[in-house]
Amino acid sequence: MTAGTETVAGLFQAAYDADPGGFWRAPGRVNLIGEHTDYNDGFVLPFAIDRATTVALSPRDDDRIRLISTFDDRVVESDLTAVDRRQFSGWSAYPLGVAWAIGERHPDARRRGFDLAVDSDVPVGAGLSSSAAIEMAVAVAVNDVWGLGLDRAELARIGQRAENIAVGAPTGIMDQSASVFGERDAAVFLDCRSLAVEQVPLGFDAAGLVLLVIDTKVEHQHATGGYRDRREACERGAAALGVGALRDLTVDDLPRAEQLLDDVTYRRVKHVVTEDARVLQSVAALKAGDLNRFGRLMDASHVSMRDDFEISVPQLDVVVETAQAAGAIGARMTGGGFGGCAIALLPAGEAEALAARVLRVFADRGWHEPVPFTVSPSDGARAL
Ligand code: ADP
Ligand code: MG
């Protein structure tokens, strides 16, 4: 048995009184740079992390589906007919949504029932995409046992479709792409228009650097309204400038944008246009092995989100300032904003001291205790 499969194997055995047919695993992700660029047809640069969802699965000869997760103490029962009527709720919408999306996109695929057990060490709701991890773990598993032969790009689309329609969350394809295309020591450079993917070596280890994530534990209170508002501003800006998406603009278009748009819309557009440029510059810097330059781009990305896109909160700003003062080569908030996590790239030997300092600074201000942990770029979804 592969390390880390004991829990899920035990869960499977206890629920179904049988050994599972196999194990599959898919990681969560962190976004290095490229925020709010996905729905503007732009660029993102996430990596798959060393925290993942593991599933144990056995195909069945009938249409029945049984699911259990360490999140829940009871078995969820369903079948393919219910799935195709989109009858699902709660956490099972993620795995069942994948089965539904495969049926929708591949009506000729020969689907059958299955027994599934799920375990995960991706923190939920921390912005590390536990949702894509469970979707992609199930997708690679059923792709194997149903003999579908779907490629990774298609599995990512199936996960996105499940999340958009079965779960009802209007998300882009970044999370699923990072989870399936991740590679050890590499980031996933994704063009959200063409969906072209390129793995970019990071070399953090060789440079003696680690990526520290600090979960501020600030709930994304304004996340839904704020997200919608930012999206609308981007659409407004693109329409006023006569382009299909902000991706079609470059920094050379910004003076014209400033003349045409009101101040707020202009600053929203400016963030997206400069952020796309920063992702491209980051990829070039990483390919050249210039991690210091990449760090400065992370810093600039944070300033842009704080001042132009206005999606940061004081806790995120304080983490970033504390990290920079402590010698991080780059730091920024990551994710949709209004709370969630910040990341800092810094020498491995200094991560613990920075984590301790952030805890002290938050305690001094009477803020909720943040949760710091390091993540490393890891392999994407796979059979074990
Ligand atoms: P995140 O930022 O972690 O992706 P989401 O709200 O998008 O947060 O997804 C979290 C949801 O995904 C959980 O509330 C749960 O419904 C589902 N989920 C994630 N991991 C698991 C798991 N191991 N078992 C069951 N459900 C899970
Ligand atoms: Mg999610």
The gist of it:
With 384 residues, the protein is of the alpha+beta class. The chain is built from twelve helices and twelve strands. The strands form two sheets. Strands 1, 2, 3, 4, 5, 6, 7 and 12 form an eight-stranded mixed β-sheet that branches. Strands 9-10-8-11 form a four-stranded antiparallel β-sheet.
| Class by alpha and beta content | alpha+beta
CATH architectural label of the largest domain:
2-Layer Sandwich
- Gap from first CA to last CA: 9 Å
Rg computed from alpha carbons, rounded to a whole number of angstroms: 21 Å
Q: What is bound: which ligands?
A: adenosine-5'-diphosphate, magnesium ion
- N to C succession of SSEs: HEEEEHHEHHHEEEHHHHHEEHEE
Detail the poorly predicted runs. none
Do you know the CATH topology of the largest domain? Ribosomal Protein S5, domain 2
Q: Give the tally of structural domains.
A: 2
What fraction, in percent, of the residue positions are helical? 40-55%
The fraction of residues in strands falls at 15-25%
Oligomer: single chain
Q: Please report the number of helical segments.
A: 12
3D shape: globular
CATH class of the largest domain: Alpha Beta
Q: How would a textbook summarize the main sheet? A: 8 strands, mixed
Mean pLDDT: 96
Number of strands: 12
Secondary structure layout plus pairing:
Elements: H1 6-16, E1 22-33, E2 43-59, E3 64-69, E4 76-79, H2 80-84, H3 93-105, E5 114-120, H4 130-145, H5 152-167, H6 174-181, E6 186-191, E7 197-201, E8 209-215, H7 223-240, H8 254-260, H9 263-287, H10 291-308, H11 314-325, E9 330-334, E10 341-347, H12 351-365, E11 371-375, E12 382-383
Parallel strand pairs: 3-5
Antiparallel strand pairs: 1-2, 1-12, 2-5, 2-6, 3-4, 6-7, 8-10, 8-11, 9-10
Helix pairs in contact: 3-4, 3-5, 4-5, 4-6, 5-6, 7-9, 8-9, 9-10, 11-12
The structure holds adenosine-5'-diphosphate and magnesium ion.
Adenosine-5'-diphosphate (ADP) binds at residues 53, 69, 71, 91, 94, 118, 120, 124-125, 127-131, 134.
